[in-house]
Amino acid sequence: GQVASQPLLARGVDVSIIDADTDMIRSAAEFGFKVYYGQGAQLDVLRASGAGRAQASRICGDDPEATDKIVDLGKAEFPLVKLYVRAYDRGHAIRLINAGVDYQIRETFESATAMGAAMLLGLGAEQAEVDDIIEEVRRRDAERLDLKVAGGIYAGADLIRNNIAHLGAEDRAT
What we know:
This protein is mainly alpha-helical. The protein has helices at 2-10, 22-30, 43-49, 64-77, 90-99, 109-122, 127-151, 169-172; strands at residues 17-19, 35-37, 56-59, 82-87, 103-106. The strands form two sheets. It has a three-stranded parallel beta sheet. A two-stranded parallel sheet has the order 1-2. The longest helix is centred in the C-terminal third of the chain and has 25 residues, at 127-151. The radius of gyration is 19 Å and the shape is globular.
């Protein structure tokens, strides 16, 4: 949450953080962050932190089920607040999309694409080629996600690149 706050703070946006980890709260306070103690799935904590007055809320929890509870509570109690949520994985991202969040991103997606790009560059690929490959990875991933939201977990499986050449669609379904 602290890193994701940087662009907002740079633009002068007021940011409130909720955390139940007292060590994290002490650490954040040392760096000048305003932190509320508690669980984001508790309505009184959300109200105390200003969620009812917010234009947007960012949810960056480590527990997908707790994140889902916060989303449900936020949608019910603060329907005009836009929800920007970090998803644990693709399945969680699908649940968040179905819950109607305004934006979701998988926890490791950006770091995974950055790592892949760095490795390609380190192996001698040109920057333009790496940019094209990463753009295609993003496009295919977004297309797969859309297909999975509409058609279930195996929809879009043909868009996954794999390293087992003999693996056919009938093998993937088992």
